[in-house]
Amino acid sequence: MLIFFICIALLVLAYKFYSPFVERQAGIDPKAKTPQARFEDGVDYVPVHPAKAFLIQFLNVAGVGPIFGPILGALYGPIALVWIVLGNIIGGAVHDYFSGVLSIKEDGKSLPEIAGHYFNIYFKGVMLLFTAMLLFFVGVVFIMSPAGLLSNLDYFKDTIFGNNTFWVLVILAYYFLATMLPIDKIITKLYPAFGLLMIVMTVSIAVALMLNAPQLPEMGDVFAYFDHSHYNNELLEPNPDGLPVWPLLFVTITCGAISGFHSTQAPIMARCLTNEKYVRPVYYGAMVAEGIVACVWATAGIAAFPGGYVELKSLLDQGGPGLVVNQVATTYLGVVGGIMAIVAVAIFPITSGDTAFRSLRLTIIDAFHIPQSMRNRLLVAVPILTIAYFMTKIDFSLIWRYFAFSNMLLSTSVLWLATKYLFDRGTFHWIVSLPAIGGTSVTVSYIMTAGIGLGLPQPLSQPVGIAVGVICLVALIIAHNRRKPVADVK
């Protein structure tokens, strides 16, 4: 468990020592009036206590992402833990923090509006497309996954509750209410409790694994994917399918490391915070907490099965990550664990899906400057949810691939947006520009090799991806320096 403890310690230390440095670059002003104070409307701009805001943000960005992704990533071995921690500290937490900073500094606006302010109308259009696409796919995915789980429970066999369409309609009805109603009617009341539930479940699983986990790889196995020859036990060999770590591991584990979806959730709490000083604990803190959740479930995937990676792969083939969650929870926590598992894979995704559709409504309203009347909210929400219903008829794996692609693309775009923000401030931009290069490299590599992309040979993807990332930074520096003298004249 040494690797696990080091990972948790690094995440905590990053919040303690690195996040204040990041905050100093952002220009936080505790005396500034927040969007909530200036635009309170009783619908989206509503004051929320910072502790509640943290739990809501944590649940908004977490859902089942830091559970399912790390379980799938555990097939690659302990290197999954290394990626979660490094990705979180260098990329994800900084990405989430600046998503909150940019939104609260820009009146709680959505990302496309902010992109238009810092770049131009063309970049705004690109960000609007990426954001809307990602939010829509997230919403559809989080209709299909909980509906499929609930309809397949043994308790509901041979009843109306065993019908997948029934649960799809029930979840859509809830999404409609959560999208339409003021934020203090459902989200601020229920989400803090669900956030606490996720924390309790995570701690319980972590303690159970430390006391009872039957199989823990050796320390030297962390980077074993470089050379599989030294394994003495075939059952313990990671990555049984021989999938390339670059770029697939970075796509498989996004939530917990870095996820563009998180930036789409930033305006929800940015419109509710009562002081800019709460941005760091709410946004940076929620991402660090998600990283801890991801580490626990990656460890569970690695350590909880006597049959090692082969057994994990078999369970995933049978019933996906949900089956793994159920087996881990019931094995180590009994009946209570079984109930927690059902909550985790059924309720947690719903809490991400409803805020995805709510964020999509806000994004569209912001982009087209639509007044926040009940009639206008209906005109936006009803078509979106109707189309989402018909999208649930499409193959889940296809929806998931496009979700993964748009997720990476958006997170990288936000890092470049934050780079431009720090350029304009004249502060230390490398905290975001370096991870932006990394995100660009992974995104380009994935597009080059993926079946939904160009399908080119994998060895070519890494150098080309890195080159594109560096070129993007150089182009941004040149463009910034060309505009700077004009700004000085003004």
Automatic annotation (TrEMBL):
GO cellular component, one term: plasma membrane
CstA N-terminal domain sequence ranges: 1-143, 151-313
Compartments, record wording: Cell membrane
InterPro entries noted in UniProt: CstA, CstA_N
Chief location of this protein within or outside the cell: membrane
Pfam families reported in the protein's UniProt record: CstA
Membrane spanning stretches: 75-98, 119-144, 164-183, 190-211, 243-261, 282-309, 329-353, 374-392, 398-418, 430-454, 460-480
GO biological process: cellular response to starvation
Membrane topology of the entry: Multi-pass membrane protein
Keywords: Cell membrane, Membrane, Transmembrane, Transmembrane helix
Similarity annotation: Belongs to the peptide transporter carbon starvation (CstA) (TC 2.A.114) family.
Name used for this protein in its record: Carbon starvation protein CstA
